[in-house]
Amino acid sequence: MAQLAGFKSEHVAYKGTPEAVNDAMAGRILYAFAPGPNAIPLARDGKLQILASSSAAGARFMPGVPSLAQAGVAGYEGEDWFGVVAPAGTPLAIRQRLAKEMARILALPDVRERLATLGAEPVSSGPVEFETFVREYIQRTRKLAEEIGMKPEG
Fold first, then answer.
1. What per-residue confidence (pLDDT) applies to 94?
2. Domain boundary among 31, 56, 78
3. SS (HEC) of the chain
4. What pLDDT sits at residue 58?
5. How does residue 141 score in pLDDT terms, banded at 50, 70 and 90?
6. Count of alpha carbons within 13 Å of 134, Cβ hemisphere only?
7. Are 14 and 29 within one domain?
8. Are residue 127 and residue 56 in the same domain, yes or no?
């Protein structure tokens, strides 16, 4: 994002999103990228200011928050996602059943409503589609890391 926006930024490694968000709220870092469910409740409580959304559609759950493209940073791609995983070797039939049950649960109106209040919009897929998505995501991320000279830490 910094490269596309035309400014220099130093990457600060964190164990997880909560630590980064806490440091952003405390002013120890200037900004952090955080998934909607981590940031939106804090913004609603006035503890955090959301500057832009990495989603191409902008922050549907925070009216008035622009997407990065709308804020002048064209070309950034970055949708937050979460996935359910199982141990390697779990039979496809079991993974398909889990995916079917997850899709059923995520379609329940009260679940969708609760997730929407957190800034999450569930999307379901089968295990094969999810594996394909993850492989392609890793390839895109590796390519980007190479382009900007990012190296793995730890």
1. 97
2. 78
3. CHHHHCCCCCCCCCCCHHHHHHHHHHCCCCCCCCCHHHHHHHHHCCCCCCCCECCCCCCCCCCCCCECCCCCCCCCCCCCCCCCCCCCCCCHHHHHHHHHHHHHHHCCHHHHHHHHHCCCCCCCCCHHHHHHHHHHHHHHHHHHHHHHCCCCCC
4. 65
5. confident
6. 11
7. yes
8. no
CATH code of residue 35:
3.40.190.10
Residue 150 lies in domain: 81-154
Q: Are residues 90 and 142 in the same domain?
A: yes
Residue 68: pLDDT over 90? no
Number of domains forming the structure of the chain: 2
Query: Higher model confidence: residue 52 or residue 150?
Result: 52
Whether 23 contacts 29, CB under 8 Å? yes
Cα 1 to Cα 54: distance, rounded to the nearest angstrom: 9
Q: Let me know whether 9 and 54 are in one domain.
A: yes
- Give the pTM: 0.69
